[in-house]
Design goal:
Layout lengths: L2 H13 L2 E2 L2 E2 L4 H53 L3 H51 L1
Length: about 140
């Protein structure tokens, strides 16, 4: 080595802190390798965590898609079902029909009663005419 270079190395080593008379020297090639290894591990860990998070997000997106489909089908079904007002109108109509049936039933009873009386009268007239003919 040259004389100037040896003096420079001695000057650098002299600047390194000492503890109890022990001088610490730093080898930059080993330190850089350790730093690169630590950074590589950190980047790999961050990327793997990002991949896991991306996978979870994709799974949640798929699940949300299924929920949206189910909700849309439910809404479609509910749109075709009668509303409260429709059911109330149907109840009123059924009550009207029951009233009409009651009136028709009373009219039918009256017609049946009238038919029975008419049959009775016809039987008596027929009986009278048959008796008159025999005599």
């Amino acid at each position: 080595m040259e004389q100037g270079t040896a003096e420079t190395v001695t000057t650098v080593l002299a600047a390194v802190p000492t503890v109890s008379g022990v001088t610490f020297t730093y080898d930059l090639t080993i330190t850089a390798g350790v730093i690169v290894a630590i950074l590589s591990g950190l980047i790999a860990w961050i990327r793997s965590r990002g991949k896991a998070i991306d996978d979870k997000i994709a799974a949640h997106d798929e699940r949300m898609g299924r929920h949206e489909t189910r909700i849309a089908a439910t809404e479609q079904t509910l749109n075709h079902m009668p509303a409260k007002g429709d059911l109330h109108a149907l109840q009123i109509s059924l009550a009207d029909i029951r009233g009409e049936l009651g009136r028709l039933s009373e009219a039918q009873k009256a017609a049946t009663s009238h038919a029975i009386r008419t049959d009775s009268v016809l039987e008596r007239v027929e009986g009278y005419l048959l008796q008159e003919r025999r005599q």
